[in-house]
Amino acid sequence: MKKISTGSLLLFLVFIITAVSTVEQRPYRLLNSDLLTIRETNEEYITNLVGNVHFFYGETEFYCDRAEIYEKQKITRMQGNVHVLEDTLKLWADQVEYFRLQEVLQLDGNIKIEESHQDSTKRYFEAEHVEYFRNERQLNAFENVIFLDERENLNGLCGELRYSLETGYGFLLKEPVIWMTDKDSMAVQAEKMEYYKDFKKIIANFNVMVSSSEFELKSDFLLYFAEEERAIFLGNPKFNSDFADAVSEELEIHFNERKIEKANLQDSCLVFFRVEGSDEKKSWVKAERMEFDFIKGKIDFGRATSNVHSYFEQDKTVKRDYSVNESTGSELHLYIKDEKIEAIKMFDQVGGMYKFHKK
């Protein structure tokens, strides 16, 4: 039997302790890899991991097909089916670079991100390139960005999205579109959108367009409050539907389950109507203030006040003659059913012209 000298045994133990200490001092904790190689280049150890790679770097957990870890620079490059678990986020991508010193993740290719909320709802993102700043909890997404919010029941797309997970504030650029509920429901488009407190408030600027199956609305500025289901339009708002077209200085709309319930027009209001039997919107009402009630997204009742001036032209049909009604007053009521004007009532200081004849 070969004997080991006391000096050789001590030397062996020192080697083992030194090797273990070196492993423990590494900034990552390796759980699995089919192949591991370590090389030294420019006074830096580079670890290569291949096949079923699973490791922790700090508190962040990584899965991938291949990884390259630069221990001195604290940079990790991963490729192939990369999966990152980061606090409330799950991130998937073809390639990921993790810069530990700056606490930045750079993701590229087929990116999918899932954010979990305390109420069990989730928010999803897709993009071609993403930057995630861990310390600031800031997410920036670029190229073909798609998002879905289960809690606010909306989804959308844009060319660039910036979002703070800490505050819930973000903004959308490059042809952003938001759909309320789904693509068949109300949609909002603009050149730029900002959202606060996880889409509880949305601000849209420049070439704003809101559209649904019942109407289209354009303006320069939109302020939308999700909890109140209320929207304010400024900057030459224009409302268009099959039945009526409206313009004013300011337009406020109240929704119920994302269907219009009430519209309030303020300052220089002008509304054109299409009356029964006519394909054109030739009848109109001018006033300083106007209100409209809606049932199932269609106008049911209208009220105009302050400097009211109206003009209604009724084309000749088999049942009635051609008629014109032009009047002024302090207040006007419109009674509407199935987008047909059933009655008009003018109040206080009424004056005008009424014509009934064959045309």
Helical run tally? 1
Q: Describe the global form.
A: rod-shaped
Radius of gyration from the CA trace?
33 Å
Number of E-state strands: 26
Mean pLDDT: 86
> How far apart, in Å, are the first and last alpha carbons?
128 Å
Share of helical residues: under 10%
Largest sheet descriptor: 26 strands, antiparallel
Strand content: over 45%
Point out poorly predicted stretches: 1-25, 354-359
- Secondary-structure element string: HEEEEEEEEEEEEEEEEEEEEEEEEEE
Structural category: mainly beta
Question: What's this model, at a glance?
Answer:
The chain is mainly beta and 359 residues long. Helices cover 5% and strands 67% of the residues. The chain has a 26-stranded antiparallel beta sheet that branches.
Describe this structure in words.
- The protein has 359 residues and is mainly β.
- 5% of the residues lie in helices and 67% in strands.
- It has one helix at residues 6-24, and strands spanning 28-32, 35-41, 44-57, 60-70, 75-86, 89-99, 104-116, 122-133, 138-149, 154-164, 170-173, 177-180, 187-189, 192-196, 201-211, 216-225, 230-234, 238-240, 244-247, 250-256, 259-273, 283-295, 298-314, 322-337, 340-347, 351-357.
- The chain has a 26-stranded antiparallel β-sheet that branches.
- The longest helix has 19 residues, at 6-24.
- The radius of gyration is 33 Å and the shape is rod-shaped.
